[in-house]
Each structure stands twice: as C-alpha cells, then as structure tokens.
Known about the structure:
Helix content is about 45%, strand content about 10%. By secondary structure, it is an alpha/beta fold. A five-stranded parallel β-sheet has the order 4-7-10-3-11. A hairpin with a 4-residue loop joins strand 8 (about 190-195) and strand 9. Mean pLDDT is about 90; it is low at about 1-10.
Amino acid sequence: MTVSESPTTTAPDPSGDVLRLHAEDEYAHELAALAAVDDRPRPPQWRLSPWAVTTYLLGGTLEDGTEISAKYIGARRLMEIAVASLATDRALLLLGVPGTAKSWVSEHLAAAISGNSGLVVQGTAGTPEESLRFGWNYARLLAEGPSREALVPSPVMRAMESGALVRIEELTRIPADVQDALISILSEKTLPIPELDSEIQARRGFNVIATANNRDKGVNELSSALKRRFNTLVLPLPDTVAEEVDIVRSRVASIGRSLELPADLAATPEIERVVTIFRELRGGMTLNQRTTVKSPSSTLSTAEAISVMTNGVALATHFGDGVIRAEDLAAGLTGAVVKDPVQDRIVWQEYLETVVKDRPEWTDLYRACRELS
C-alpha cells in the first residue's frame, strides 16, 4: 500500500463513550418535538412553555404522535407547582428524604427550561463561597491586578449572565455562612464584585433550583432569611407499590441500556418483591397491616431499590442466563438493609424469619438470603 492509499479514519463520536448523557442530550428528540408543537406563551429565555415543560416531565402523546416518556411518576400538581415557581422570580427548593428524585427532577427542569442542565454547584461540607459567587485566577491577579479577565465565574454567576437556571445540589450540606452568600443573589438579583467596584445583574430567565434533605448526617439548617427566598416543594415517596415499581422498572431499564445490559425487565416479579421489602421495612409494618416489623437505620429509598435491581441485572447478565432470580438479588438486598453490622443485621434476620419465611412464593428468596447470612 502506498502512502496515498492509506485508509482514512473517522473521528469517534464523543457521546458514544459517555456513561451518562445530560438530560438535554439524551432526550433531545423529545425536547425538539415539544418545541415544534408548543405555541403557548413562554417566560423570558425559556426554551419551552410551562405546559410543555410539565408535559416533558410527566410524559404524554403529542398531536403528531410523538411519545414523551415520563421522567417523574407522581402527582401532576407537584410538577405544576415547581414549574410555576420557576416562572416567577422566586427560587425553588426541592425537599425530601433521600431517593425521592430531587436531583433527577432538577436536572430535567433545567434541561427543559434552559437547555442546559450542566450549571451545577454540588454542596459538600467543604464547599467554599467561591462556588456560589466567583473566584480569581491568581496568576493573572498577581500579574495584572483585579480585572474582569482574572475573575473565574461560578456556575451561579454564569447563569446570571446568560439568564439560565442553576442547580445547587444538597444545599443543607453547605456550611451556613457559605449558604448566606445566596441571600443577596436571590433577593436583589445582583452579584457584587467589590474588587472591581461593579456588579453582575441577572438577566431575565435566571433562577435557582436547590435540593436538600434532612435525613443525612452533617445537615446545616437554612437560615430564616434564606428560607424566605425559596418556594419549598416537598417531594414524597411513591404513594403505592405499583407507582414505585413503575419508577424502578423505567430507571433500571434506562440504566441497563446505557450499560448494555440486555436483561428484559418488562414482566419480572422481582421488582415488586424488592419494592415490597423496602416499603415494609421503612414503614415498620407489612403491607397487609398484620405484622409489625423493625426498621433499619438505612433509608431504603426508591433510589436504593433501583441500585439493588441494577446489580441484580448485572449478575444475571454476566453470570447467569439473563433472567433475574432470587440469588441475584440477595446480596444487593442484604447490603442495602444492613448498614449497621450489629443492629441492622438483627432487624434483617428478624424480617426474614417472621415475614419472608411465611410467604410460600418467596421461599427462593428466603433461602438465598439465609445462605448469605
């Protein structure tokens, strides 16, 4: 082969190797279909109208036959309240126990409204004030002095400049003195830059979606001044077993596709068993209200049920015949329930002996869990 005959190479698609696409990329076809039929009024800078955003979240069929998948399974009114809040100048705080889809909802709200869910501040115990305001490129700062070019904008600042939504995850994990940096931003819609004797004024369309829960350790309560600047929406756990099963099935199927796990979950009874166990343990009583059970220290949220099922799918795919069985779930169930190796193990063993053992259709699950113990 001569040099002129050397084969051409095609640049790889960068999205092909991405483990998890942003919502606006994964559901781009749905957002485009909604935008094409959306003739309702839109708030400034919004990509879609409030009606279209709610339809994107809850799913439905458009006039042209396009199917919009449900991103949130629950009360429609909750999503209407969330969208309506963001259409005003009030920030939105999504509150709830772990695993109630707070981050999931905030991501999809940002994707549908601003077309960009990537403006995110992840709250931790070490989050500095610069994450909410701005920082400095110290090399340029020392060489040139304070200037706009030496300033490093935070996601909040970029959202203010572009008129977009910014997400603040786990707001109550952020130290209280850092949280208060949001007060002037939310009330005055400005970000002062004292070093430059100037300020950043938020463009129309800017708003904040924050998430928080009060079940984790290290929670920093919000000040009264900060609470007043949020509309708070509590996201509950799913009302029924069927609703929670639908949530777990759809999310595990989505995760399975991204991980190339071919297991078929459409009719598996294992999802219902996992959901039933989690609901009974966190509720302290069996679903038929006949037996009281102890609750473990773990939250046993819907998100953890999704994790147990995803692990079961991986085991069935790589070490089985692709059909999820009790043996594939036992380790994940035990790990989800037993966080405290002493107290939780006692709770789990008691549940196995008083509830699982007495259900003839669950004999395989009882044996699999007992073998691990």
